[in-house]
Design brief:
By secondary structure, this protein is an alpha/beta fold. The chain contains 13 helices and eleven strands. The strands form four sheets. It has a five-stranded parallel beta sheet with strand order 2-5-8-1-9.
Length: 310
């Protein structure tokens, strides 16, 4: 999958790995970045390398829950209502500009992400497996957007941030576009059965108790940081376990090392901490316009303070 994606995507190795780890761990990914940096292109390329069903949902301020879940349609021949599934019924769902959806629609998406089902007219409809949401949002343009509730943010296993590339990488993009344009020249290389088999293998990855204690110490350290209003939750700790196992599996190991934990922690915790308002204001005064950078500093400081098991 890495090889297929790099036929189209230049650099972004860390972001690609977060998508792979989330797929293996059974989680979802929030991708942030300013417009034009390839967030949607990345998600489409990722889905193209999988032999799985893919749907894109362009979120807007007037979108209703039924627009993503589906709704009952009256069948005149059978004289009864029949449920017509919405675009959420796919293995990989791209939720484009998720923060433009109103709270009711975001709530419907939250149920799908957490329960792997949707409820319409009191009836539950299970979603296909594997199921994964790749959501995108623009952190700069706030007009006409609705902030994602903390409960919804907590359901994402990772928050990946795409920044401007180096000039050499941008030249490489131009060279590829000159040949292929906007075409996504990738081939599906992973089947649904292989995804399920890989997920089962990840579950068998072993984690020593000392490494688990290391994870717990990191999460506890974020709660003690004086810059933090609300630290990482117990769900964040469980997620850290899952993605650390996925990272070890991607490295070809059947056990998790402290280095696995250190590598995934910044991406797994950066959207789960709420900083104090005065800390955010001070960061803005220093020209740090991204809260992402402020939270990343808190997480990295926590990692530096916690003793690494030997």
């Amino acid at each position: 999958m890495r090889q297929q994606m790099h036929r189209v995507i230049v650099d972004l190795d860390d972001v690609i790995d977060t998508l792979l780890m989330a797929l293996l761990a059974g989680g979802h990914v929030l991708v942030e970045g300013t417009p034009g940096l390839g967030k949607t292109y990345l998600a489409r390329t990722f889905a193209g390398s999988l032999a799985l069903s893919f749907k894109r949902i362009q979120f807007t301020s007037d979108m209703l829950p039924g627009d993503i879940q589906g709704s009952p349609i009256f069948d005149s021949r059978r004289q009864e209502f029949e449920f017509k599934p919405g675009p959420i019924f796919a293995n990989v769902v791209l939720a484009d500009e998720i923060n433009r959806a109103p709270p009711r629609t975001q709530s419907a998406l939250l149920e799908a992400m957490q329960e792997r089902q949707v409820t319409v007219e009191g009836r539950r409809h299970p979603l296909p497996e594997p199921f994964m949401v790749i959501a995108t949002q623009n952190p700069v343009e706030q007009e006409g957007t609705y902030p994602l509730p903390e409960a919804e943010l907590d359901r994402f296993y990772f928050r990946a941030y795409i920044r401007f590339l180096r000039s050499s990488s941008e030249v490489e993009i131009l060279q590829r576009k000159q040949v292929s344009g906007e075409a996504i020249d990738v081939e599906p290389v992973v089947s649904p059965e292989e995804v399920e088999s890989a997920r089962a293998a990840v579950q068998r990855v072993h984690v020593e108790r000392t490494v688990m204690e290391y994870m717990a110490d990191i999460v506890a350290e974020t709660r003690r940081d004086p810059r933090v209003l609300l630290g990482a939750s117990a769900r964040a700790l469980v997620t850290l376990l899952y993605v650390s196992k996925a990272r070890a599996a991607l490295a070809g190991r059947s056990y998790v090392t402290p280095d696995d934990v250190k590598q995934v922690t910044p991406f797994s915790l950066n959207h789960r901490l709420i900083l104090k308002p005065e800390v955010v204001a001070e960061g803005l005064g220093r020209g740090e316009i991204w809260s992402y950078d402020l939270v990343a500093q808190v997480v990295n400081d926590a990692l530096a303070r916690v003793r690494v098991p030997t």
